[in-house]
Amino acid sequence: MLSFNQDCWFVRKVVRWRALASIAWSVLLLPATTTLFVFLVRFSLFHPVEWISECFGLLMAASTIFSLILLCGVVLVIGFFNLEGYTVVPSIPCSRVALLAKVLHPRQCVHSLVHCTVGMMVMWCASVMAGGRYQALGSPCTRGESADAPEVCLNEYHVFLLLAGAFIGYSHSFLGVVQNMNYVSFQIIQQYKYLRCKGSLPWVLKCSAVQSLYAVRNYVALYFFFGHIPRAWISNSLNLPIDSSLHSLDSLTGLLDFSLLYHLWISGAFLLLTWYITVLLFRIYVTEAHRFPVQSTFAEDAEQCLPKVLSEKRTPIMKFLALQDLALLSQHSPPRRQEVFSLSQPGGHPHNWNAISKECLALLSDLTQRLVAHHDAVASNGRARPPSATSDTRTTSNSSVSSAVVSGTEDLPQTPRPSVLLKTPGSVFLKSSGRGISSPLTAPFTPDLDSPFSTPSLRHLAAQQVPQQGQWLGSVQSPHIIRRGPKLWSTSTDSQANGSALASPVPTPSSPPPEQKSSFMAQWLQNRKEQVKGFMAKRVLVVYLFNKLPEASSQALFADSQAHIWALEGLSHLVAASFSEDKYGVVQTTLPSILGCMLSLQEAVDRHFKLPHASSKPVKTSCSMGDSTYKTLRFALRAALKTSIYRITSTFGEHLNAVCISAEHQKRLQQFMEYRE
Amino acid sequence: MCSLALFPPPLSGGQITLYEANNELVAGSSPDCYEKQHWDPPSLNFPRETLKPHSRPESSSKAAFLDHKDTLWMRSAGAWYMLAYICSFKELFNHCESFSFNCFFLTFRSDSAIRSFAWHPHTDKFAVALLDDSIKIYNSRSATAPTLKHRLQRNVSAMQWKPLCASALAVACHTCLLVWHVDPSSLSTRPSSGCAQVLSHPGHSPVTSVAWSPSGSLLVSASPVDTAMMVWDVAAENCVPLQRVGGGGVTNVSWSPDGSRLLAATPSALFRVWETRMWTCERWPCLKGRCQSACWSPDGSRLLFSVQGEMVIYALTFSDMTGGPKSAAVVADLSETTFSGIDDITVGGEVQSLAWDPTGERLAVLLKGSSSHPAIIAVFKTRSSPVFELLPCGFVSGEIGAEPRLIQFHPHFQHGALLTVCWSNGRISHVPFYFVSVGRPHTGGSPPLPHITSKIEDYSTTHTLYTEQIS
Question: Locations of Polar residues compositional bias (chain A) (predicted)?
């Protein structure tokens, strides 16, 4: 994944070093966790002195040192995967089949496989350190009566632990996908790394213990039913007979061994703890605020300056950190604000402020566009809408999440073109099928509410519409339908289907205007498609898989809203500070556009929250490493938006009446000035 | 250093302080005896008897209010839980000298029907929490006074309106933190409990103090039994616990008006001042007792606080240049003073609470009463240049038999400062202080004056003393 942003100085100079530092610290923490593990796993209540001396002896032993070296390797692998897989914009599957596709993606399969292997390695180390009956794969056989009995038998306890390692490794990888564990969220307050780490450690400890408990429960159940298969396979392939005088572990008596379960739980917690610490340190390091200079005296550093960095689209982490830095500087440091308001030395242009405000406004208006488009799509759900919408989305399907930020503004000039009207459903469908990426099954990947399976009646209606498409399209005058551009958020689901949220950064150029001549062919294909959909929609499993998850589309719309929140905070604090600090009045020139942008976003957000599921709160997840802050980002955005407008109105007060904005916005602004919103 | 001996003597014989004008406190015999010029906040009265008694701490009626849909086990567990809470409170109260549910126990003293009071920071609107666990909101613009009730809204100990927002009110409750969103344009008198957001964190209850950041983005809540204080992103409902060793719980949090610092008082003889950029803290061990109350100057550079067991006000001055103060300075002495007049009046004592008006010119100090003398409010004038000092202004007294319980300044009174006082008899009154603020441009040249001037006769003697002090 790093391949495409090799060229970015930020990844080269900052992110990698941060990742390296986090891995180094997780390696340094390994002896501590190992010591803790050894003491817990060798715990004996009745021989405390023996227990302690034994543990200290074990910590010095060569096998433990070797295990530690092995664990270091494991941590390196995990850290590498963290660096490769992290994202600041979560990918949110909008249906179960999308989630399934995410889990079964080759990239994810490699991830799972590596985690299985690495989990087995950790468990091998754990079993070596636990000693006793878990020590080795082979153990001397117990039956003595038959002389031809082999000397060494298979030690099932060892196998049990190793398989547990593989299982926990896989479940870690699986849960990582389901809970978006690779999503890195930013904290609401700034703290020093050490303090933040110290504060989170108890939580991580608790988390690994709880998750290990769940994993043990699942694993024991699994082993009870299917344990004999891997056991027989290993015993055959390694030519180690199974000791029949012992209880086999896939029986009730074998599994109801308390000390076995305890050791399994502790080992699982140890495994998860080392991994979670790596993840935690990585998150802490990578989200640490980075200070970008506002302006530089040297030309070669210009690309590292805040205005330049903000407009960068290819490296989301850099853009996010730059926005965070903007929000922080606007709140906390007057000297840096002065730099933002300053004029360029020859010429006297406010380049810094212009670049920053333009970028923030572009971000916000992009979100407004997205919301309007989504709202129109949903609002037209009640009416018959051309089935093209689903294939429509495919025109941007190659663009990635990072380009979603761009494409909103790109679509703007497109939308008023009458040629959009000519984009008949059939022709778009033809074109996309010509590309070979279309299949009827891909339609539900899009988070549109008009999934054919959710509204069979509508599908019926739409199917009836097909023959008279020409008239219908001619009669449509609604600007909503004309304006409906590509569905930007569909890109997020699409990119997760590719398994990478940071996939190819280049947005596809907009498709050429479709040809009219192929419309008959297109209609025929459309009919077939509808028939297939109708057939599939009757199957319960298919409906289950393809039905949209509630509020997922809402979450997907606001997936990158942390950037918008910072843009709002940064802008509003800068504008509020400009009241007293802006000597040359550079902010005044952009004040109308800032207010207009915020107010239209406010309107769009208000409308969005009137949709079903948009204002329902997500269920709180209990103890898990997956970060679920993205689920509530839309609420945070709504609050930040209101606060930002209030910040400007309360600072400027009556002066805002002199600002030129449209009458509608003026009315809305008046509501804010009277504290009635 | 200022002391109470420099004050004009307190009123006697049922006189009520009405307002301040021309540097004098004007008294009258009834609260309605002067003509009011501006918007007049409603003076409310909540007699204890009018409140529904369902939440009074009478154990006999407890059983009736356990949910009878629950099973027997759940009911008994609930009852046991309640009992355990009451016991633990009593236990703490009896054994731990430093126990400090500051305003919590003030309201628990059950003589006042008002538990908490909060002005809205931007509009003429305030919320009053009553003993029956309901909150009433009064607005200058609308006649409807919505009443907020929620299943979890029990033992309200603090409230604060969100800055830069019209509608959000954070309420510190017994088990959780509630954030009400009361639509200001709604005509409903009973907003549904769906308008309230419930924020809870395991181990973080009872919540006794809340503080919004002045930028409106963060909310800090504190509980005396939880060593961590929580920093909430309310909209996203996620929180960051901030924990430091020592102190054992946080009783009171207060954000400096410029948002750069946060005071966190603990139940032991220690308080912390956090800086809110990187969230590191300074420890301030007090020698005598815990920090009883504190308030920030409007520019956030100065902190006044009082310590339990001492009758003085301390000041800490923060500045970004020098790296913070090294020690606290005593700025006022509040030891007991007897004014001899027609009948001897004794005032003074420990500080119950402090309030500083938003222009930074008046400081109201609520002095704890004792068996010999009642609680009283002393008002100081404050001056920050050339040196910081407190100058006497006067005592605010209410009706006979009524003691002040809560004091708060109106956040944006146009003509000076407006002090709102909640009295023990359930009355809420407002005392305006008319003056021209130094920070404000002089528009008319003289402060707006009320028309009626009724002076006390024996005021002139102390008047000279007080002008001497000023010059």
Answer: 489-499
